[in-house]
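Structure in, sequence out. Go:
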């Protein structure tokens, strides 16, 4: 995959992630490609949500990419640091 194609793919993933997660989306980190994949994407969420909901949303990102012929590994993680700092601020301001 050429660099210009990778840039288009990254933007497509970012658009789909924003569509699915909205305000919950904090960041998307890209790496790779590794082995048979075109790209790896880590979806960073601001807070925890149910696993079932995450799975459905990730599927809604993965499926159109697969139909377009891309092989993308998509993972997720939660930004625990920002949640911890908010809790600490609340605790100290009480």
């Amino acid at each position: 995959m050429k660099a210009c194609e990778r840039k288009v793919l990254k933007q497509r993933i970012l658009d789909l992630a924003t569509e699915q997660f909205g305000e919950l989306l904090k960041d998307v980190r890209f790496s790779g490609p590794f082995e048979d994949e075109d790209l790896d994407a880590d979806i960073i969420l601001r807070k925890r949500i149910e696993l079932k909901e995450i799975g459905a949303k990730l599927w809604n990102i993965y499926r159109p990419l697969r139909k377009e012929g891309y092989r993308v590994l998509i993972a997720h993680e939660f930004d625990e640091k920002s949640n911890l700092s908010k809790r600490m601020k609340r605790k100290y301001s009480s």
